[in-house]
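A common beginner's mistake is to predict each chain separately and then try to dock the pieces by hand. The better habit, illustrated here, is to supply every component at once so that their relative placement is modeled jointly.
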Amino acid sequence: DAKTTQPPSMDCAEGRAANLPCNHSTISGNEYVYWYRQIHSQGPQYIIHGLKNNETNEMASLIITEDRKSSTLILPHATLRDTAVYYCIVRDFLNTNAGKSTFGDGTTLTVKP
Amino acid sequence: DVKVTQSSRYLVKRTGEKVFLECVQDMDHENMFWYRQDPGLGLRLIYFSYDVKMKEKGDIPEGYSVSREKKERFSLILESASTNQTSMYLCASSWAGEKLFFGSGTQLSVL
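With all components supplied together, the output reads:
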């Protein structure tokens, strides 16, 4: 699985959009981009994933560049409860032997009042 | 909803003890994973299993072994616990390459 690069930390004002970038320049054709978040002392929680089209669900939006080498997770109206570590990983969706999913250090998002 | 259940939330063991961390998932997932998480080091993969009795080493398998006798259960074994194995241990499962579901984690302290 390809590796990802994320900024170590970001701040966001409550009520504003939080835009979290991720670089995955070595992504291959079958690999999806997945985003998770981890609130302190809990297991990571799935947020959203995509292949090449932009995706939106009740939690967030995912924007993937046309060359698929980077993506941005958007939390449209951040709340204090969105303060967490956000991980971007890539996984080969078609590989039944899913293999390693390498998590980097993620981005610590702090939402401030 | 998928449930991934880890047997203990907190565990305290002595150096040299044999330690078993248990993980059970209820969605018939093929793949199961064990990660450890330490401050500043993110999640690091210890072992994963893509079928019953099948296992593969992750990035940091030294000092650990695993067992998967039934599809729903994946155990992590510390044969002789050491203080440097004090960590948060996270179990996860997935169907093929789809999204991972994580348990709540086990905070293990080895004294």
